[in-house]
Amino acid sequence: MNRYVFFLLFELVCVISAQQQNIKQMAAETLSELKRLFADQKGWTEVQNFDGIKLEERFEPKYQRIIRRLTAEQPDVPVARVVSVLLYKPEEQQKFHKSIDFFNVVKAEQPDVPVARVVSVLLYKPEEQQKFHKSIDFFNVVKKIDNRIRITHGQITPKTSTGGLLETRDDVTLQAWDYDANTGSFYVGYQSVENNIPIPQGAKRVHSDPTGFRITRLNGGKGTHLMWLANIDVRVPENIPPQVFEIFARANMIEYVNNLFQYIRSSRT
């Protein structure tokens, strides 16, 4: 190998290393911002509370949009299983959410849903999401940075809760996760990234600012306490009144979480 080729290869390695460092820095910033949004308890208005799932909204000045927070508790759904579906096997989402071509604060408490199972679905087996989220058209891991960070490309065509009014959407996203030993919480964060991946024909690309999940054991037991914060510019079509879209957006979040928990319960091994 001559010196010219050696220096070219060395420069390429340096560029790749710098890119990965930039991605890791972005992942850290995404998770930090997600934790800030979860921790900020001011200004939330409850808009729906039904069957153990609470949905809240507030205007976030930093992003100049309404963000949503869903909370649910499931005593029989393991945290590990939820994380697996959301992060490591996102394709499973199509099995329970019919609208996923791609991946969307809600609070949910499920005493019968183990944390381990939730973590498994969100982190380790994200492909499972296609099994319960039928709106997912596809979900691809574009690049794996390390065991906690990756770049993904997904597409969603809403098929149920939006009544078919929203067209196909895609997003290229940085996904990262972290575990807070002090609180026993898993954080799964998402953030749109610049890329050269072409937009699929007929799709509209959305933009996600720091968005994601916080998953903890329910009262220290086997169940799951899940919070989902949605902070996304979904590019609502001009022909859809904002009030109508808000109804669809709320319904979609609740439907997704209900389907996730039902899928985990039905797929126990």
From TrEMBL:
GO terms for molecular function: lipid binding. Gene3D superfamilies: 3.30.530.20. InterPro entries: START-like_dom_sf, START_lipid-bd_dom. Pfam families: START. This is Uncharacterized protein.
